[in-house]
Design a protein that fits this description.
With about 300 residues, this protein is an alpha/beta fold. Helix content is about 45%, strand content about 10%.
Length: about 300
């Protein structure tokens, strides 16, 4: 079901490196073709491409210009204008952005994630033992990365990623964080105090929602692994990312995405109500994520 972002094609005329976006674009073309019941030669003939070029296109090793993409979608009976526009935008993307300057230092999976985040409409993330990367302060992130080579470059990369939440059209971020991540004092008490205060400040942004899953939760949400759901311009292009020491794993299959959306909805339902402050600056009089963070902060002083 899963697929790891692949690198290293060496055939002349094909991409030497395949980003996750390019791989996902090709995968989407293949899924569309199979859903329409077309063979590779039939879809290729409709788009004016022949032989192995079809398989290379579906594998992300070759691009497909807009005219041929439109012909491909027509042949497959795709009539959703929003989906067509989103797929065209995915195919036209150059893959270049601020992350390009970190190519020599960042892991390919990290570069893929940064590219996805740059165009994401929404990000739903679940973390168990760490504060999500987009919400980490620099001293906290430095401790997390200290055993990695080229720590400074990776630290700058992580801090640069966070700018996506402060741009002109930021994605909606919904983070569910297990309470265990708040108790682990990476960097010491002073760093964790600043980190928890940062969570409170970030929750004031209208597009950021933060919930804490308490340790005394008595129900099981059918997941132990952390994951991110990257919401695209169209739901059919949503992607699930699971980080793994050997390399991040991405899923784009609708069934897999739907499964993780159900898991995230369950986690959000089990978590405490989000951090929030009313218009007068008062905090809600209930057991919520803010109250739990304040309780943990009290023990850090």
């Amino acid at each position: 079901m899963g697929s790891v972002a692949r690198r290293g094609a060496s055939i002349v005329g094909l991409r030497v490196e395949i980003s996750e976006r390019q791989r996902r674009f090709g995968e989407e073309l293949r899924r569309m073709r199979l859903t329409a019941g077309l063979s590779a030669p039939e879809a290729g003939a409709a788009a004016g491409i022949k032989g192995p070029a079809v398989s290379h296109t579906e594998a992300g090793r070759l691009s497909l210009n807009t005219e041929r993409l439109q012909q491909w979608m027509d042949a497959c009976g795709c009539d959703d204008p929003e989906y067509r526009a989103a797929l065209v935008a995915m195919g036209q993307a150059t893959g270049r952005g601020w992350w390009t300057g970190f190519k020599a230092h960042a892991h390919p999976s990290a570069l893929d994630l940064a590219e996805f985040e740059a165009t994401a409409a929404a990000l739903d993330t679940y973390e168990t033992l760490l504060i999500p990367g987009l919400l980490q302060i620099e001293p906290y992130a430095r401790v997390i990365l200290k055993t990695a080579s080229e720590t400074e470059s990776r630290l700058r990369f992580r801090m640069e990623r966070q700018k996506v939440l402060h741009g002109g059209n930021p994605p909606r971020l919904h983070a569910v964080i297990h309470e265990a991540a708040l108790h682990t004092r990476y960097g010491g008490a002073a760093v964790m105090r600043k980190q928890l205060h940062h969570l409170i400040e970030m929750s004031r942004l209208p597009h950021v929602t933060i919930q804490i899953l308490p340790s005394d939760c008595t129900q099981y949400a059918m997941t132990e692994a952390t994951f991110i759901i990257v919401g695209a311009a169209h739901p059919l292009l949503d992607t699930v990312l699971m980080e793994h020491p050997a390399g991040s794993v991405y899923w784009g299959e609708p069934e897999a995405v739907a499964k993780y959306r159900e898991n995230f909805a369950e986690l959000a339902g089990l978590a405490l109500p989000p951090l929030e402050v009313d218009e007068n600056g008062r905090l809600p009089a209930r057991r919520d994520s803010w109250g739990l963070i304040q309780h943990i902060l009290y023990k850090l002083y």
